[in-house]
Design goal:
This protein has about 260 residues and is of the alpha+beta class. The protein is about 20% helix and about 35% strand. The protein is built from five helices and twelve strands. Strands 1-3-4-5-2-9-12-11-10-7 form a ten-stranded antiparallel sheet. A two-stranded parallel ribbon has the order 6-8. The relative contact order is 0.18.
Length: about 260
Amino acid sequence: MDVRSFSGKAFNQVPDSENRIHSDEVARAHGFEGALVPGVTVSAYLLHPAVVAWGRDFLDRGAAHVSVQKPVYDGRGFTVHVTPDGDAAYHAELLAGEVRCAVAASSLPATATAPPVRRGDAPAGSVRVPATREGMMRLRESGMGAIRVPWGPGVPMAMYFRDEQEMPDLLRLGHGGFANPAFLLGTTNWLVAANVALGPWLHLETWSQHYRAVPHGSALIVEGRVTDLFEKKGHEFVDVDAGLFFEDGDPAAHVRLRAIYKLRP
């Protein structure tokens, strides 16, 4: 099946999230028009054509690079324009009106790249490092605590459209569906939040590789490490390399995340 462009309405699933950038009040205080739709949700819109066209195969071995460049707001219309690149790859851009908000390159390789190996990291504790360069450097040296995330009813990011009928059948929880890209990428956000006492922060970019679809009733162990820290235009950035594993140790996905963990004043 060919990958296809589509249009929809953006959905902020987490207006009450600990990350208050998804609330109107805090987002406006930082110069935005209103609450931001999560970056992982925007990413899922760009990967939606891959799930529709390639189905289970994409969840088992698909790869993608997604970059969120501009804010997307709840309830606003958007269009994902797809440009095929052969039979098993495409480039896409998400437009809100005439503004390009995010771009992606997705592919369905014949075989997935070498999977990560589970390290057996200790679970994240109750003490989180502060969202400062010093705190992040300490985390880089000490290592990140792992988290356990179940996939099933009631989980955050269960849908990336407001209406479940718009979700692909194989991702619909009401049909016992597989974990969707917003949830899978979202686990890396939760990993950071479990290790860092964050204020408002932004998910910007991911490089992801799937290894096995995550079925209803599964739980994932998410491990990660801080690989880079840098400042740009007054914002503090972090790069995190994360492995998503089933409880038996088999890999589900490998994700590299780039985020602004501290917005400029």
